Amino acid sequence: MLENGYYWRNRELRKHVSVIDGLDKPDLLLTNAVYLNAYTKEWISANIWIVDDRIVYVGEKLPANTEDIETMDCAGKYLVPGYIEPHAHPFQLYNPEQLANHVAQTGTTTLVNDNILWLLLLKKKKAFSLINELQKHPVSMYWWARFDAQTELKDDTQLFNTQEILSWIKHPAVVQGGELTSWPDLLAGDDRLLHWIQETKRQGKPIEGHLPGASEKTLTKMKLLGVNADHESMTGEDVIRRLRLGYQVGLRYSSIRPDLPQLLEELLAMNLKSYDNLTMTTDGATPGFYEDGMMNVCIEIAIEKGVPIEEAYMMASYNAAKHLSLEEQLGSIAPGRIANINILSDKDNPHPESVLAKGQWIVKDHSSQEISNVVNWEEYGIGKLTYDWELTENELQFSVPIGLDMVNDVIIKPYAIDTDIATEQLPETKKDAFLLLLDRKGKWRVNTTIRGFTDRLGGMASSYSTTGDFIFIGKNKADIILAGNRLKELGGGIVIVHEGEILLEIPLTLSGTMYDGNMRDLIEKEKQLKTILKEYGYPFSDPVYSIFFLSSTHLPHIRITQQGIVDVKKKAVLFPATMC
Question: Amidohydrolase-related domain: from which residue to which, for each copy (predicted)?
């Protein structure tokens, strides 16, 4: 068994060798298999021997004694490496364990995760204990170390300082630095950021950029400063430009940017010769986007668009493992690798009928197997929110002249408020709604309006946000207060109210951010959320991301943050937060 999720003990390594010598027996045999070899990109017939969580042999031979060994005859089947999601944000209403349980059913057996929530919620010792606990899950979970918060915090030096960052990048479960949303600061001369990048590279770990719309000049500068990869390409030309400069390029298929089909069409039209430096990512999509799985869906799109079948599987397995220096553990079916294997009915059907993760059956002959929970969230202080204040009319005082105007799901521009906002209810003839960002501890608030989110909804309250502070949106102050009171009773979540009636509750009882329940149930709740908000005037596709990104200063043009209303480009606080 992997020690702490990362290495095998010496005695285990000796046992693995003794199995080859016939002195011990494997635990599982996959016989008569045709598997994809990641090194020659061939489909080869073989028998595969597995001991505990490790592949120990791939070849023509069988053990001399097969008695009492679990055996699956894979005749007529095709085996590929377990799929890897190299860029997961495992907190989009769901929690990391819940997401892993769900996507493993369709063959994604490795997640490389954002660590931002652990920075916000936990002290470093607790956070490291938690990610070590998650290594006991059959899905392989790795992490990246954030260098910035994607928003303006009251005091970001508590979370982002050299001692904290270096501790994270040295952890064996952390396999890269980034994603680097604060790259403009790096270009502007932030030597602290540059130091963190250099130290990450000294650990042999790559840096993930966040470079939407970057020019060749900017991409070149970032490459010189140490950035290895980027997933923000929006056109085939963007992809080719990055590849030619030596970037590992992630092709995105997310709920907010489902670009993968278009990118592949353009790359194929440009006669792309090599796929070795391409991966695919769903980039932290919202729950309903994962109804049919994760990387299996990306592979299906790639095959349908005409990507060679072998390359499609490599983009979702070996290419990511090699980039992250995990190829000796993951991404291939070969001796010494973790036994993450998907068994397919056909080469061109990436939806597995059986899934092995760390040698454990997740799905066997189309039948899902039970996965035991490994995390007791209460041990880490992650549970229902409790607070000793209530939302009142005092917090719902609006007077600033500038509001937030939604251009699409996540792009927001400033606008001059021309509606009387010193009222109890805003008129339905206007698209303005009250917008309040309120400190979790009730100590400060930011009051303004938002235009384009709803034209008539009474009130919505959410503890789900970039920073974990509370967001309130609505036309009617009484409905907003009712939603806020119900949110407090739930211990966190999203509550929608109209004309004094609660229309929907999504309890997020893990620190007000994550759902503690079945992913299928959460998907249905998110569908209800979208349906209700669209009925009340939400015009875009992904309200969950609209809510989440209200404070995210890596997006243009104006945001509502802990410091106040911020002009992103100028990095200026236009209207500071008010003390309660």
Answer: 78-361
